[in-house]
Amino acid sequence: MTGRARARARAVARGQETAAPGASKAREAAPATALVTEAELVGRGRQKGAPGAFSAEAVLQISAGFQKVKLGERGGRRQDFNDAGINTRHAMEHVKESKSGTSGSAIQLTANYFRIMSRPRWVLYQYHVDFNPPMESRRLRSALLFHHEETLGAARSFDGAMLFLPQRLHNKETVLHSETRNGEKVQITVTLTNELPPTSPMCIQFYNILFKRILRILNMQQIGRNYYNPKDSLSIPQHRLTIWPGYTTTILEYESAIMMCIDVSHKVLRSETVLDFMVNLKQQCGEQRFPEICTKELVGLIVLTKYNNKTYRIDDFAWDKTPCNTFTRGDEEVSFKNYFKKQYNQDIADDNQVLLVSHIKKMGPSGGHPGPALLVPELCYLTGLTDKMRKDFKIMKDLSEHTRLNPDQRQGRLNSFVTNIQRDIDAQAELDKWGLGFDKELVKLTGRVLPAERIFQGPRSFDHAGAEWAKEMRGIPLINSPPLNNWLVFYTRRNGNEAQALLQHLGKVSGALGIRIQKAVMVEYQDHQESLLRALQQNVGPKTQMVVVVLPSNRKDKYDSIKKYLCVDCPTPSQCVLSRTLGRPQALMTVATKIALQMACKMGGELWSLEIPLKQLMIVGIDCYHDTIAGKSLTAACLHASLCTETEWETVSCTAWSTMKLLRSWTLSSPWGKTTYPS
Q: Nearest Cα to 418, choosing from 431, 405, 400, 407?
């Protein structure tokens, strides 16, 4: 399974009752009949007779059997597909044919995948299209080309330069003639450049484009990368929230077939408009501070305009423009207020509201350069949840009733989705034109439930089948923990009691865990970022083993400044904790235990271990950051864990301009990589 799928892969045990698929307004899909026989489907994907519905006998899964077909040269300008995540396991001698284990017990699973079905010997034909004279507008190029439906057929996909057809034209080069509305004669030359097998990277890209077309036929709305159905929206009036159900999908090649990975997604919309938010904010902060605070609160947020179901990012404010201002549309000046009334039948009540600015990055269909879009706050709805909402237990509980689905509900939703595609006349007709379809059932496979691992901690060991064993760890010494003799605790005057309570409880739990902790040095700082940074610079020294900071709020800028100083400028292990986490006396013992374990681990201690039969094993974890702002450099952070005799680990970070240089830099900077495991 490739890691590039944007949809999340899930599997649920079979034999469980699934939710009934939702009813569709379209007619029931009739049983597929074989309009063509397999003997008639000859010659590199061409068929005799009109294309029609395909039966189970006439259908072949797009499978690994096509993987041996050699891909020819591609025509046109396209991206390099070497990193497309496909064909990763072909011709690898060390890979076993069977990857099924024997440990544990077998279990039947259902995965969130649907196989893509096609006719036998299905081929996608790729053509390059030239226009003489050249046409700049992609929309005009498409209109001129699609006048020739009798020649090209009903099934076609054109991106402005490349044309894809399910059947081959009679000639390798076909010349067509069209005429614009102005009477200009245009010659169109369609040249065959490639015959693509089902597993080619271009076909994988085409499947995803075609499926997006199917989603639009179903009247689903794209928000970000996912599609949602506003007709099935769920309302939570007590919190002024609306949920749009949707799906996240991706189609890729896997070991056995081309499959669509699909998962349920939800988009949370707020009934509050941007104008409502701005009015409330102005009442709270006053006229003078309003522009500054409004910019800080709203810039970067995503809003939805329901009149066209599009999302925009708020990038700025046009403080000098209101709905009464005008813009040029064609040959006339039109006010924003009149434009929205005529175009979308939207009435704007507040004529004095300032307009929002969103920088459009995607080039339009006319081929024009993108520019800033001006939006009316009254017509923009906020999306997502605020930090205050996320902290509200009641809101999150009510949301989870609709968004957290159990395996049966999730499987029912996925089956219902594909059933609706097969029942929709227009959607199924579009798939039939291309000779493609979806399997009616989710992929079934056999998995294995592995036995529980034995966990070793100090003198004890225990078996635990779950993923949480905090209770079993209480009162048991760790495998190894360095003594904590020189450490600092930073706190504000308002959080002094919480900091003292934390120290007391750390002293209580550390003895049972085998951690020797000396008294910490308490440092008080004022509640602003500059004071905290100055306190760190004045008190943290070379002999400091640990820095604990009690934060009054979860402001990201303050947290980032702490980590930047203690990771880059003055490398020192650190632990941040929110004051509200320490404000619950009944849970303070549990909190102190978890903090003590984290501190011990950050100082190089060994908490617990597993019985791993492999000897001289090193595990490397790596995370990469792509800095697109400062020159597109790559920064990698690596963690090496050596499990030869005991649990040891170290971290290395490095920066480079390419992946190969990054790996080389990591190898040279890692002592284990140079000596124990040479490259």
A: 431
pLDDT tens-place string over residues 274-293: 999 999 999 988 888 898 88
Structure tokens at 377: 């706050």
At a CB cut-off of 8 Å and minimum separation 6, what does 488 contact?
Answer: 520, 521, 522, 523, 539, 540, 544, 546, 547, 548
Question: Sign of the C-alpha dihedral, residues 666, 669, 672, 677?
Answer: positive
Check whether 332 has a pLDDT greater than 60. yes
Q: What's the pTM value of the predicted model, to 2 decimals?
A: 0.68
pLDDT in tens, 180-209: 888 899 999 999 999 999 989 999 999 999
Task: Please report how many Cα atoms fall inside a 13 Å half-sphere around the Cα of residue 144, on the Cβ side.
Answer: 31
Mark whether 600 and 624 lie in a shared domain. no
User: Tell me, what CATH number does 142's domain have?
Assistant: 3.30.70
The answer to whether residue 624 is domain-embedded is yes
Task: Select from 159, 174, 196 the last residue of a domain.
Answer: 196
Residue 318 lies in a domain: no
Query: Are 491 and 542 part of one and the same domain?
Result: yes
In a domain, 322, yes or no: no
Residue 100 lies in a domain: no
What is the CB-side half-sphere exposure of residue 163 using CA atoms within 13 A?
Answer: 28
Give the count of domains, the chain: 3
Lowest mean pLDDT among 256-270, 325-339, 470-484, 639-653: 639-653
Alpha helices (H) along 460-495: 470-473
pLDDT tops 70 at residue 173: yes
Give me the half-sphere count of Cα atoms (radius 13 Å) on the Cβ side of residue 403: 16
Which of 196, 217, 249 corresponds to the end of one domain?
Answer: 196
Q: Which two tokens stand for residue 361?
A: 């990055």
Task: Say yes or no: 660 and 528 in one domain.
Answer: no
